Amino acid sequence: MTAPIPTVLFVCVHNAGRSQMAAGYVQHLAAGRVDVRSAGSEPKDSINPVAVVAMAEVGIDITTGAPKLLTVDAVQQADVVITMGCGDACPIFPGKRYEDWELDDPAGQGIEAVRAIRDDIRARVVALLSELTSA
User: Whole-prediction pTM value?
Assistant: First the structure.
């Protein structure tokens, strides 16, 4: 019997930068071993173009995603909820694993700053995936 695939939900305010980059890394690195979603408490109309460029530099296309509104259902369906600066906007449910990743917001930042945020996210995603997929 195979273990169920864990679901990770990345949440930030605008769902346009940090959470999109994190979801892109999970999709790229987990190779189907983890289901990933992202959402925002106040989603923007489109993904941050500098985040798109930064991810393209490492061979990951995040242009197929779109900012989505955080819903209670999305949180209930997730096994792990990673927040990135959304404060109290994320509902808390017993039995869920929550982590808050302190990351700078890439909104309004230049490519150099966004690259540093991207690389920080990658390191955190790699560590998370090693925990979730080692069983």
Answer: 0.93
